[in-house]
Amino acid sequence: SPIHQPSARYPAWVTAAAPGAAKGATSLPVQPLPSPAAAGTAITFSGGVSATLTANAGAGATVLAVAALRDPVGPGETGRTNGRFLVASGTIGAFTELLATAQAGSNTLAVPPSFAATLAEGDLLQVTSDAPFEPLSTRVQGEMATVREVHGGVVYLTQPLHDTYVHGASPAPRARVAVVDPGSFSVTGRLVIERDRADHVNADTFGIQLAYLDAPHGTLEMRNVQGAGLALYSCWRPCFHVDAINHARADQDEGQPVQVMNSTMYGRFTGTVAHARHAYASGASGGYYGVPWDNRVTMTATSAGGAIFDCHPQVGSTYFDGCVAISGAIADVAGFTA
Predict the structure, then answer these.
(1) pLDDT tens string 63-109
(2) Is residue 14 helix, strand or coil?
(3) Distance (Å, rounded) from C-alpha 280 to C-alpha 292?
(4) Cα–Cα distance between 100 and 110 in angstroms, integer?
């Protein structure tokens, strides 16, 4: 399988092997070190993956976590870390209520001057309220935006708002805004994540989960990942090419190679998918805010019975450009073989 090739852009690397990673490991840049660390320093990443520095690294050096190419646990649930091979996330700050309703199409937010004083050009914001995005759902409205400039208590956004956020005290919608401190994630080369076919009947297995990241990107290959191969929660400007195939039960295709959730915006997704329930699925989940807006998809995909391209009611906008959906139990596509 193709292995990630380190780039000279990164001053220090961590190599690790998760327990039971029978097919080797692939390193990915995940986060900078907060302070200098000497060679031999042990680091633990989310998902229970441990690593050891192979060289001295200064503050800000990019640290790598490993994505095991095989489920480190096996067929059972015992000890599984949510079935995810790799998790990377930024953070979101405390919310501040808006001082006035923000209208769809407007590029301004009225905020307390004390909050405005903390902002700078390019900052990433999460805007939301308690109002549901659509009447039949409990998922709240919301989107992300970047700061163009600030004058007094008025924040000018780079992009106009997609939705209207109503100002008012509880139990009104309580329109509010928070600053997102985004992380980063990138793949150089092609990352292959493959689950052991002997255990592919477990539908809770996942590949990569990303949240609150700015411009995450890369090329991925997913094999037998029965849950979400690539799951993005409130990510800004993601760009991924994903090729995926699942060898599931003969009577039902499984898995969602690309899952775009919550305030993930301005994404670009391409790829070829065989035998998936949904090649691309989008919606909103608890624990994050808002719905996806303005993501673009160009994929060729097959499914024996699922909705090949699936947008739930909790989606603001998705553009399908030149997609091909092939339904029915047919041969594998684009070079994938059984």
Answers:
(1) 444 433 333 333 333 333 345 566 677 788 999 999 999 999 999 99
(2) strand
(3) 13
(4) 6
pLDDT tens figures, 179-189: 998 877 776 66
| Other CB atoms within 10 A of residue 289 CB | 23
Question: Which range (70-74, 114-118, 300-304) has the least confidence?
Answer: 70-74
**Confidence bin at 113 (pLDDT 50/70/90):** very high
Strand 176-181 and strand 96-97: the pairing is antiparallel
Token readout for 103 is 């209208």
Residue 234: partners with Cβ closer than 8 Å, 6 or more residues away: 92, 126, 144, 180, 211, 212, 261, 262, 263, 264, 288, 289, 290
pLDDT at 276: 80
Strands 86-89 and 208-211: parallel
Omega into 2 within 30° of 0, i.e. cis?
no
In whole angstroms, what separates CA 32 from the centre of its chain? 19
Given this model, what pLDDT does residue 29 score? 41
Tell me which residue has tokens 């400039």. Answer: 149
Distance CA 5, CA 17 (A): 16
Residue 77 or residue 324, greater confidence: 324
Within 13 Å of residue 266, how many CA atoms lie on the same side as its CB? 12
DSSP labels, 322-335 = S-EEEESS----TT
Contacts of 242 (CB under 8 A, 6+ apart): 219, 220, 221, 222, 229, 230, 257, 258, 269, 270, 271, 273
